[in-house]
C-alpha cells in the first residue's frame, strides 16, 4: 500500500491549509484513514481518523478548527485546517488501516511539514 500526503507548507497564523492523502497500489479494503502529527521535539499525536462504518476519533481541542473528510472512491482523506496557530506546526502523517478477512494493519505516509509562522 502506497500512502502519499500532500498540501503542507508555510502559512501565517490565522491562515488555512488543506492536507490530502491518497492510498494506492492495493486491493485491500480500507477500514479507516486519518491524520496524526508530530510537533518538533514531541511525540506523535492523533489529529483525527474517519472510516467506513467507523466513528470519527479526534483530539477534541482540534475539532473546532479542523475538519476531516474521506473519499472512498479515491481512497483519499483530507484534513481542512483553519485559524492555524504556531503550535500547529508539525509534521503531519497520514495513516491508512487496510486489510481483508478481519486482518488489518497500519500503513503510513512519509509525512508533510506544516509550519505556522509570521
What is the structure about, briefly put?
By secondary structure, the protein is an all-beta fold.
Question: Could you please describe the fold and organization of this structure?
Answer:
The protein has 118 residues and is mainly β. Helices cover 0% and strands 61% of the residues. The chain has strands at 2-6, 9-11, 17-24, 29-38, 45-51, 54-58, 66-71, 76-81, 90-100, 103-108, 112-116. Strands 2, 4, 5, 6, 9, 10 and 11 form a 7-stranded mixed beta sheet that branches. A 4-stranded antiparallel beta sheet has the order 1-3-8-7, with no helix packed on it. A hairpin with a 6-residue loop joins strand 4 (29-38) and strand 5 (45-51). The termini are far apart. The mean pLDDT is 94.
Helical residue percent band: under 10%
Distance between the termini: 37 Å
Proportion of residues in β-strands: over 45%
Number of helices: 0
Reported for the largest beta sheet, the result is: 7 strands, mixed
Give Rg in angstroms: 14 Å
The helix-and-strand class reads mainly beta
Low-confidence sequence ranges: none
Net shape: elongated
Q: How many β strands by DSSP?
A: 11
N-to-C SSE series? EEEEEEEEEEE
Mean pLDDT: 94
Amino acid at each position: 500500500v502506497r500512502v502519499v500526503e500532500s498540501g503542507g507548507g508555510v502559512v501565517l497564523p490565522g491562515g488555512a491549509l488543506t492536507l490530502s492523502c491518497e492510498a494506492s497500489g492495493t486491493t485491500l479494503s480500507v477500514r479507516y484513514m486519518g491524520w496524526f502529527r508530530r510537533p518538533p521535539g514531541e511525540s506523535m499525536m492523533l489529529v483525527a481518523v474517519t472510516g467506513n462504518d467507523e466513528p470519527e476519533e479526534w483530539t477534541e481541542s482540534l475539532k473546532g478548527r479542523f475538519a476531516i473528510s474521506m473519499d472512498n472512491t479515491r481512497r483519499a482523506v483530507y484534513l481542512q485546517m483553519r485559524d492555524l496557530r504556531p503550535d500547529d506546526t508539525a509534521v503531519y502523517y497520514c495513516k491508512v488501516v487496510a486489510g481483508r478477512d478481519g486482518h488489518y494493519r497500519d500503513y503510513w505516509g512519509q509525512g508533510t511539514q506544516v509550519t505556522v509562522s509570521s
